Amino acid sequence: MAQTVVNEYQTLIVGGLGFFGVMVTMAFNAWQSRQQLREELRHERQAMRVALIEELKIYRDSLISNAQKKEAAENSEGKVAYVPTDPWKTPIGRSRTALASYRRRR
Fold first, then answer.
1. How far apart are CA 37 and CA 32, in angstroms?
2. Residues in Cβ contact with 102 at an 8 Å cutoff, skipping those fewer than 6 apart
3. How many separate domains does the chain show?
4. Residue whose C-alpha is closest to residue 59's, from 80, 81, 90
5. Per-position DSSP letters for 60-105, written without gaps between them
6. 53-101 tens-digit pLDDT
7. Contacts for 84 with CB less than 8 Å, ≥ 6 apart
8. Side-chain half-sphere exposure of 89, counting CA atoms within 13 A
């Protein structure tokens, strides 16, 4: 009896198992894709956070330098110029010429 049922519905059983396998695979791939996207977003947030912190450090150092120059100029009765100490310096230490050549390549 069971043998005849299996023989009669063999295509349906195999098709159902195959369909179930494909659905499980697709669900697992979607889960992995979501995990990968979350990781990419976390990495981008971390990179942006580090870049902003480094940029703010440059601004802070520039303001400190300008304040020291102002104090020195006020003590010596000279003129004061409020400019960054090195506006072209980046957090990774590129010079002005490196930035200019990078802009030309773009």
1. 9
2. 94
3. 1
4. 90
5. HHHHHHHHHHHHHHHHHT-------S-TT--TT---HHHHHHHHHH
6. 999 999 999 888 888 887 777 776 655 555 555 655 555 555 555 545 5
7. 58, 62, 65, 66
8. 12
What's the rounded Cα separation, in Å, for the pair 84 and 55?
13
pTM above 0.85, yes or no: no
Q: What is the pLDDT of residues 7-35, one digit of tens each?
A: 899 999 999 999 999 999 999 999 999 99
For residue 7, give every residue at least 6 positions away whose Cβ sits within 8 Å of its Cβ, in sequence order, or none.
none
Token pair for 102 = 């990078």
Phi, psi at 55, each rounded to 5°: -65, -40
> Contact, 61 vs 85, CB < 8 A?
yes
Distance CA 99, CA 106 (A): 11
31 half-sphere exposure, CB direction, 13 A CA radius: 6
